[in-house]
Amino acid sequence: MGSGHEPRNDPEDRDLMARIQAGDVGAFEALYARYAQPLINFFFQMCYDRTAAEDYLQETFLRVWRARDTYRPIGKVSTWLFQIAKNYWFNEREKMKRRPFHAVAGGDEGRSQWTHVADRNPGASPEAGLRARETEAAIREALEGLSEKLRVFCVMARYQKLPYAEIAEILGIPVGTVKSRVSLAEKTLRARLEDHLGEQA
To answer: Which of 1, 31, 60, 75 yields a CA-CA distance of 20 to 30 A from 41?
Structure first.
């Protein structure tokens, strides 16, 4: 899954936001094109449900449009977008927990062209493909085993590759706390993967 958070030209982002605040729909579409992939990857890695991730993405950008006048050009646009995405994710999960019955994300819907390494390497041997899928399944299971609050640190740092300072700003916590939580998340993942991956974990 090409899930890294690619560097952006922030002056261009701010120009887009200025135009969006003036009601420019074309600029909004351009911002969507720049950030849809990192945000949908974030949601997918949080829930492992492709359909849900796509729904979360659409709802997030609806909130971006509605909140466009609240943006102030003193920070990175990407940070502001991830703050909206993070807030929406946790709000939705809290609503789900309060329901008497709710569907659990994942299952067959979790299959995605973004994640399956073996599917992206059709020249691999059947044995290598099987090992890749088994490893990927183990990583997914380990990640899903983290608490949601701990998982968000792992996803943002390890998969989105956001700098600690930006994660701290998104989550509204000190950088030192981000470092310790990321370390804890990675240690927990490593322990969960130990049996499957052995020394390679």
So the answer is: 75
Q: Which residues contact 76 (CB under 8 A, 6 or more apart)?
A: 8, 10, 13, 166
Q: How many CA atoms lie within 13 A of 153 on its CB side?
A: 25
Residue 131 and residue 57: Cα distance in Å, rounded? Answer: 31
- Which of 189, 186, 187, 165 has its CA nearest to residue 177? 165
pTM (two decimals): 0.73
Query: C-alpha distances in angstroms, 105 versus 9, 44, 51, 162?
Result: 34, 10, 9, 25
Contact 103, 165 (CB under 8 A): no
pLDDT digits 0-9 by tens, 154-186: 899 988 899 999 999 999 999 999 999 999 988
Nearest to 45 by CA among 132, 142, 130, 180: 142
pLDDT (tens digit per residue) in 116-148: 433 445 555 566 656 666 667 777 777 777 888
Strand intervals (E) in 42-173:
none
Q: State the Cα angle at 162 between 183 and 67, rounded to 5°.
A: 125
> 160 phi and psi, to 5 degrees?
-80, -20
How many angstroms separate the CA atoms of 55 and 200, rounded?
A: 36
Measured distance CA(39)–CA(83) in Å, rounded:
11
